[in-house]
Amino acid sequence: MTGIFGGSFNPIHLGHTGLAQWIVQQGYADEVWLMVSPQNPLKEENSLLPEKQRFSLARTAVRHIAHVKASDFEFHLPRPSYTWQTLQALEEAYPTQEFALIIGADNWLCFDKWKNYKKIVENYKILIYPREGYDITSALPENVTLMNAPLFRFSSTDVRRRLIKGEDVSEMIDRKVHERILSEHLYETYRHNTTKNK
């Protein structure tokens, strides 16, 4: 089974890769694809790196991690891309594979707001990882599993905030990713904009 772990990965950090590794090691999935989400043309975020840069950093982060890979599959789908459509397109492209959706507890608690959420629950396994402050107390459908995964307390938002301030993030992101962010001057534009707007 292939676990689909979607996100903007802006930037990818050790929480993302650590969780993906844990899921494979614990046997919840045979492999995990980190599905980098494309930019939404209807939504602007001034700290969002271009999708190809985010995907390239994700590939760097997983270069030595067995059974975990970065995927740009959604880049080639109509936009905006919804999870249901992505899962359907994956099934069509890889008819012999079984896919499971990996989401955080925060997303599960608002899952009824997702497009075609009932169809996702009916047709796919869902693996939920815990998020601090988001407790799931209600019963779960048979094909939905709350994993007893470790909590990774930092986020991409926190990594970006530190990068923009010029603070150390070496314990939060992969060494090669960190080197690339510095050498390619990524997020510096946002640091200058933030300084200008103060």
UniProtKB/TrEMBL annotation:
- Give the record's pathway: Cofactor biosynthesis; NAD(+) biosynthesis; deamido-NAD(+) from nicotinate D-ribonucleotide: step 1/1
* Catalytic activity of the protein: nicotinate beta-D-ribonucleotide + ATP + H(+) = deamido-NAD(+) + diphosphate
Sorted alphabetically, the Gene Ontology BP terms of this entry are: NAD+ biosynthetic process
Q: Which SUPFAM superfamilies match?
A: Nucleotidylyl transferase
Which InterPro entries is this protein grouped with? Cyt_trans-like, NadD/NMNAT, Rossmann-like_a/b/a_fold
Origin, by domain of life?
Bacteria
Q: Domain Cytidyltransferase-like, which positions? A: 4-162
Give the EC number: 2.7.7.18
Q: Which UniProt keywords apply?
A: ATP-binding, NAD, Nucleotide-binding, Nucleotidyltransferase, Pyridine nucleotide biosynthesis, Transferase
The molecular function terms of the Gene Ontology recorded here are:
ATP binding; nicotinate-nucleotide adenylyltransferase activity
Q: Describe its function.
A: Catalyzes the reversible adenylation of nicotinate mononucleotide (NaMN) to nicotinic acid adenine dinucleotide (NaAD).
What family does this belong to?
A: Belongs to the NadD family.
NCBIfam families linked? cyt_tran_rel (TIGR00125), nicotinate (nicotinamide) nucleotide adenylyltransferase (TIGR00482)
Its recorded name reads Probable nicotinate-nucleotide adenylyltransferase
Species in which this protein is naturally found = Pseudoprevotella muciniphila
